[in-house]
Amino acid sequence: MVFSVGSHAQEKPVYPAPAKPLKAEYTIYSGALGDEQAPTKDERKLAIEISGQGAKEIFDSLYPDAKVTCSGEAGERLRRKGHVWCAFSPARGYKCFIGFDLRTGDSIAGGSC
User: Is residue 10 part of a domain?
Assistant: First the structure.
């Protein structure tokens, strides 16, 4: 009996959806968005702001544009699905916002206009 091992040993796995670098900032807080306070033992929320290419790819996945915008700046666009929302402005580029309640694991808003 002859076995052919060579062709299978050199195959590399194919990842159709590879991980990519992400430019992001985060805040752990309590209280409400826009009036964030220091996190407490009982209340800890996570807000994540994604920018750059990652934000553009997320923005492109959330079509169509919303009928409202945040600033009214010419060329501004807003897209939202549930608690995930992204904005594009000619001055600031792409930004996306997501959030989580770290005590419950629930998805919450991660940014506001």
Answer: no
Tell if the pTM clears 0.85, that is, is over it.
no
| Contacts of 69-77 spanning 24+ positions with Cβ under 8 A | 70/113, 71/113
Instruction: Tell whether 64 is covered by a domain.
Output: yes
- Whether the Cβ atoms of residue 48 and residue 99 lie closer than 8 Å to each other: yes
**Full residue range of the structural domain in which residue 85 is found:** 19-108
| Full pLDDT tens readout for the chain, 113 residues | 444 444 455 666 777 888 999 999 999 999 999 999 999 999 999 999 999 999 999 999 999 999 888 888 899 999 999 999 999 999 999 999 999 999 999 999 999 88
| Domains in the chain, number | 1
Q: For the stretch 84-98, what's the b/e string if a residue is b when 16 or more beta carbons lie within 10 angstroms of its beta carbon?
A: bbbbbbeeeebbbbb
